[in-house]
Amino acid sequence: MNVTRRDLRFLAAALGVSAFGDAFAQTGAPAGGASPAPSSDPLALVDPELRAGAAQVMQWPALTAENLLAARARNVLPQPLPPPAPTVNVRSIPGKRGDPDVGVEVIGVKSADRLRPAIVHMHGGGYIVARAANMTAFCQEVSADLDCVVVNVDYRLAPETPFPGSMEDNYAALKWLHRNAASLGVDRGKIAVMGESAGGGHAAILAIAARDRGEVPIRYQVLIYPMLDDRIGGARRVPPHIGALGWTETRNQFGWSSFLGMPAGSAAPPYGAVPARVEDLAGLPPAFIGVGAIDLFVDEDIEYARRLVNAGVATQVHVVPGAYHAFDFVAPQARVSREFTSAWKSALRAAFAG
Hints:
There is one protein chain. The chain is of the alpha/beta class. α5 packs across α7. The protein has a single domain, classed as Rossmann fold (3-Layer(aba) Sandwich), CATH 3.40.50. The chain is built from eleven helices and eight strands. 34% of the residues lie in helices and 15% in strands. Strands 1-2-4-3-5-6-7-8 form an eight-stranded mixed sheet, sandwiched between helices. It has helices at residues 5-15, 51-57, 68-74, 136-146, 165-179, 181-184, 198-213, 249-260, 298-310, 327-330, 335-353; strands spanning 88-93, 102-107, 116-122, 149-154, 186-196, 220-224, 287-292, 315-320.
């Protein structure tokens, strides 16, 4: 498996960590203060096809309050796919009353004699970095492959905008899509929410808010290695071989503290901000949850899936052996990445067909 520098830069853009190359640490130890894996070879547990990318991912620079703005400034936005890929319409929609307008990319709208499903997509980046444009090409591919409209949300970032600001941006995009479904050629009954990493956390948060407010029905939620529990890396620790590559416990605590506007793991976070700490999960839309077995989020994602099942929510779980955070972006042609992507796309197709 050959992982190119372009692949790694695309991953960096997707997750908002764009300091590859000269900014790599010179040590082989994981960045961000995570403990090393319990082996002389930190890559020993990684799937063979994912190892080339892992050797670079493990050297991601740390994200701190001191270097956050610099990390954002270095973030290079990839270009959209050229025609005949689905068109991208960048526009501004009204935010919640009193909030600024929300930037969105509306992807794949086309005139047709039938209504099509739609996805509200939220990008990753630990709640603190990246932009919607980091995922434009990815959303174009999803739109083309699933024959759907994608609304890719450029929500406000923490710590400048803590919860509930970004959630309200995402909810505004969901309501706008639902309200304008007819003009966009969208079936109001077939709207899904989706995201990766912090975007997966946002998708879970949005599903909870939509259930509670009862204004917009959500057909399905696709949570790709979602960031769901602010206690991980603080009150709750993981084995040292988990989360040693890429997104570490230290980064996780910083991201969550920024997002919540209070220390991660505090006794009483705002309701709905931390999906893992929402007591009642009944009535949420069916879900796909996928994660790598050595991803920092594996325990919290499996636990959230278990709680969804116990709440009567139809839930599919896909755990990938030997896979670290964002492995499918680092090595998209690896067997495990192709099977993983096929699984969540199959789940979405089934949800849209029902």
